[in-house]
Amino acid sequence: MHEISIKAEEVFHIGNFAVSNSLVLAVVAMILVVLASLIIRSKLATVPGRLQGFIEFIFEELMTLMDSVLGSRRKSLQYFPLIATIFLFVVISNWLGLMPLGPITFDHSPLFRAPTTDLNFTIALAIISVLSVNILGAAAIGLRHHLGKFFNFKNPIMFFVGILELISEFVKIISFSFRLFGNIFAGEVLLLIIGFLLPYIVPLPFLFLEVFVGVIQGFIFAMLTLVFVSMATVPQEH
């Protein structure tokens, strides 16, 4: 049975930069997302085939969901790349961790580890999400109005509310990162223990469950980002 470690293991160094096994699989996930996008784009046709039709159906359903949150198809088209990229990247990162790559080692350490089981990865992804929300908010309503949500000097009550809003931005990072990390790490630990105690057939239902959980966690991360984008791109008086 492999040792359960919360910390990602370092597998090699590039100069003074330590490369962890979770970073290796994160790069793989990124490459897969880019390659899949390029392949799908190169095969687009006026009359869609089954694969293109299925992808268009998924994207249209996601766009419809975004319309209900943002209230505008124009906004949905504008923010769709961010939300779809987050969703695909998180889901693929989760699924890669379910592949039987544990026996592959490098310098006595596992070479691959699901990126979302590394707290450093989920915190970085959460920071990117929250920064994107604030940048898009400032672009939509203006930097002055956006900062006015956090620094409001009209009266003491509004000033206090603004400080709470500023603190909530950091709370979002903690909530995002620990929710994703906790769910995926716990799932992988469960699979590892069950696979060790009751190998072969018994772990299969739990494996399928984790495939589903991987999609749900990606969906939750993307939808929370969408909701925060919707709130950030509306003027404070609304």
Main-sheet strand order equals 1-2
The proportion of residues in beta strands is: 5-15%
Number of strands: 4
Structurally, the number of domains stands at 1
Radius of gyration: 21 Å
Q: How far apart are the first and last residues' alpha carbons, in Å?
A: 55 Å
Question: Count of DSSP helices?
Answer: 7
Can you write the helix and strand succession as a string? Answer: EEHHHEEHHHH
Catalogue the unreliable spans.
none
Percent helix range:
over 70%
What general form does the structure show? globular
- The class by helix and strand makeup works out as mainly alpha
The average pLDDT is: 81
Biggest sheet architecture: 2 strands, antiparallel
Describe this structure in words.
The protein is mainly α and 238 residues long. The chain has one domain (10-232). Helix content is 71%, strand content 5%. The chain has seven helices and four strands; from the N terminus they run E-E-H-H-H-E-E-H-H-H-H. Strands 1-2 form a two-stranded antiparallel sheet. The chain has a two-stranded antiparallel ribbon with strand order 3-4. A hairpin with a 2-residue loop joins strand 1 and strand 2. Helix 3 (73-96) packs antiparallel against helix 7, helix 4 (119-141) packs parallel to helix 7 (203-232) and helix 6 (156-197) packs antiparallel against helix 7. The termini are far apart. The model has no long low-confidence stretch (mean pLDDT 81).
